[in-house]
DNA sequence: CCCCGTTGTGTCAGTAACTGGCACTACGTA
DNA sequence: TACGTAGTGCCAGTTACTGACACAACGGGG
């Protein structure tokens, strides 16, 4: 009975998260998730290509939102300022939905296979950010470098915020970019040649 | 016959790479790899925890080399200068072994599951770099930020080098760090507040 | 020289992630 | 009311991986 499709998908997401939390990702079978969601195991794999992806269903929207935030940044901004603009929006969303997202983070952090998938998703987001920068006219090479390093700073800030939520994520974000400026301003341009060994 | 153990392992690495190149990762079974290496399928999984890991066997050494290069950088250098020192060494190794490594890169680039694993390995390397920085006295937060962003710049350089090998990797590496300095020096410290929506 | 602990391997049975194919059911629409 | 479509159940099959047990080669000590 194909009542809604989207409904089954929602229940599958829910059931998967619950079970992953209760008994761990590795100790949970796709059949169990499907059973709790009231559908067949086969149906699970029709909605999600694999057992991990069920936890990353919202990443498509996130990617779109990120690209849009980059596109909507005021004209004339330098690449890092554009990224700061976009990351602030994304960070706002993170702060708002933290209570809902936290159990999900917990499962991912505890499961190597899920952390792998998360890194892959991040790479996918970085590509979107780089492309959005290019659309604004940023040179391809610079866009790639800015997206990669800017994302790295963002992730550092998120980690710091998770460890120390007292200060808002936006505070950590500003600090990360400030510290990055301090770090890179000290690097000597000259090569320090070491003898080849 | 446990002639050597390390020998079987070497043959397994070799056979796996060959088969992944010939017919693709997904179209290759562990049993086939084992057969070509002259051992049992079970033996494959005794040497490698899964089908992907067989392509990343050298990453332990790389991690150690990277940590050592960070440790051996001259005293008194700022974090990014230390990283530049370490990445130059790593880059030298990359340039030297490129012909041997290229087929491996090709397989990884063509296989999503392998790119996932590669990203996980990179995260593991970044952790090692951050820890090595901390051992030198760099504050934990700064070490994490520097390792993440420095690695991002390094990977940008590697990508640029793969796309355009005419200039050496070290040239791309210097340029990446220079461009990163230029990028981050332009970011405005003040927050540009956008109304919450 | 033989005994023995260690290490690497082969074999077998089993679990579970996924996939393809086919039939069926609900639903919107002409 | 007939029909196309989307979502689902069921079944059979492949393959990644695991645990258990037995066996073979090697090394050293008596």
Automatic annotation (TrEMBL), chains A, B:
Alphabetically ordered keywords of this record: DNA-binding, Transcription, Transcription regulation
Annotated DNA-binding ranges come to 29-48
Origin, by domain of life?
Answer: Bacteria
Question: Taking every annotated instance into account, which residue ranges of this chain make up the domain HTH tetR-type?
Answer: 6-66
* SUPFAM superfamilies attached to this UniProt entry: Homeodomain-like
Transmembrane ranges, per UniProt, are none
Which PANTHER family does the UniProt entry name for this protein? HTH-TYPE TRANSCRIPTIONAL REGULATOR RUTR (PTHR30055), MYCOFACTOCIN BIOSYNTHESIS TRANSCRIPTIONAL REGULATOR MFTR-RELATED (PTHR30055:SF238)
Q: What is the protein's name according to its record?
A: TetR family transcriptional regulator
The organism's taxonomy opens as: Bacteria, Bacillati, Actinomycetota, Actinomycetes, Pseudonocardiales
């Amino acid at each position: 009975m194909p009542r809604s499709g989207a409904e089954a998908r929602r229940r599958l997401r829910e059931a998967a998260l619950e079970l992953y939390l209760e008994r761990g990702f590795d100790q949970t079978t796709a059949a169990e998730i499907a059973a709790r969601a009231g559908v067949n195991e086969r149906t699970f794999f029709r909605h999600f290509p694999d057992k991990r992806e069920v936890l990353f269903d919202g990443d498509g929207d996130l990617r779109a939102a990120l690209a849009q935030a980059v596109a909507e940044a005021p004209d004339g901004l330098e690449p890092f300022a554009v990224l700061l603009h976009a990351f602030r929006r994304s960070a706002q969303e993170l702060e708002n939905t933290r209570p809902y997202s936290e159990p999900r983070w917990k499962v991912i952090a505890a499961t190597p296979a899920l952390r792998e998938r998360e890194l892959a998703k991040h790479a996918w987001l970085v590509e979107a950010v780089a492309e959005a920068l290019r659309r604004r006219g940023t040179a391809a090479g610079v866009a790639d470098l800015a997206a990669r390093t800017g994302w790295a700073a963002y992730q550092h800030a998120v980690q710091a915020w998770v460890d120390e939520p007292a200060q808002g994520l936006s505070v950590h974000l500003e600090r990360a970019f400030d510290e990055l400026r301090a770090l890179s301003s000290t690097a000597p341009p000259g090569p320090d040649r070491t003898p080849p060994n």
